[in-house]
Design brief:
It is built from 1 helix and 6 strands, in the order αββββββ. By secondary structure, it is of the alpha+beta class. Strand 3 (55-66) and strand 4 (72-79) form a beta hairpin. The longest helix has 23 residues, at 2-24. It is flat.
Length: 115
């Protein structure tokens, strides 16, 4: 009886832990290389027409980004709004060179060569 109760509680703990991890981890940022940029110009407006006829607008950016070790890389990404000129961003880049997410950071968080 006690053994069955411990197994049941163990399963509950594992399911709860797995659920918490799935709900809180951002896999777009997890285990990605980090590059830094400063937005200096407006993004190019891109309009996509959906199957239902609705138009989605996003803004494309092509930037020269830099890692903390000084390595430069040309990156392209899009945002659902025009990004603020002068903003400093940390880009999360996967192994295929695609930007999966970004965060705004302060100037002090930027590598010396990037600002």
């Amino acid at each position: 009886m006690k053994k069955g109760l411990f197994i049941f509680l163990g399963i509950i703990v594992i399911v709860a832990g797995a659920s918490y991890a799935v709900l809180t981890l951002d896999f777009n940022r997890f285990n990605k290389e980090r590059y830094y940029i400063q937005i200096t110009q407006d993004g190019e407006k891109i309009e996509d027409r959906l199957d239902n006829g609705e138009t989605m607008v996003r803004y494309g950016y092509k930037v020269d980004a830099i890692k903390e070790d000084g390595k430069h890389k040309e990156l392209e990404f899009s945002a659902n709004k025009q990004l603020r000129k002068g903003a400093y961003l940390m880009l999360y880049v996967n192994k295929e060179g695609e930007v999966t997410s970004y965060d705004e950071v302060s100037k002090k968080d930027m590598p010396k060569d990037a600002s």
